[in-house]
Known about the structure:
It comes from Bradyrhizobium diversitatis. The protein is α+β, with helices and mostly antiparallel strands. Helices cover about 30% and strands about 25% of the residues. The longest helix has 15 residues, at about 175-190.
Amino acid sequence: MSLNTTAVRIRVTLKDVKPEVMRRLVVPVTLRLDRLHLTLQEAFGWTNSHLFEFFAGEVRWGIPDPHNDYGHQPMDARKARLCDIVRETGAKTIHYLYDFGDSWDHVIKLEKWFENTTTEGLPFLLEAAGRCPPEDVGGAPGYAEYLAAISDPGHPEHEHMRLWGPERFDPNVVDRKALEAAVNALSDTWIPRRRATRTK
Length: 200
């Protein structure tokens, strides 16, 4: 990453989940980590109802909480940017942990750097594969059990799980247009587009 680097393409995969749940995005390298969190929430289809952390090596970023019971205080994600992680750790892979109970581990690979490009319109969703698991399903093991139950009418938990989760849940079907719109809305909020000026 050079001083002229303005954006990066990232590939984000939900660890230990089958079928694969993956998103590919382009984001500004100066994106604050709390905003990267919101970007990933929208890109995956999560509901932003749990705590989160980013980590690379031994360093963690999140929202400090003096009352936390997890034995550590992360660095403040509102005061750090994606480029800070790269400069401070040299990482090419970063982890994003969402929901400390279910422990959804998103593996973020930094795929390609862009120099001297505009950041208007970023973040931008390039690719989406696999539907996001339902919230509070029990992490990767619980999700595997959920999929087994809803796909087998003879499973003892079939009816309960079918009614508990989203209607007609298909792990292979993703509403890419809805995810794109949600990510684009963030771009409009954070980087207002220039208004056209009237000419006399």
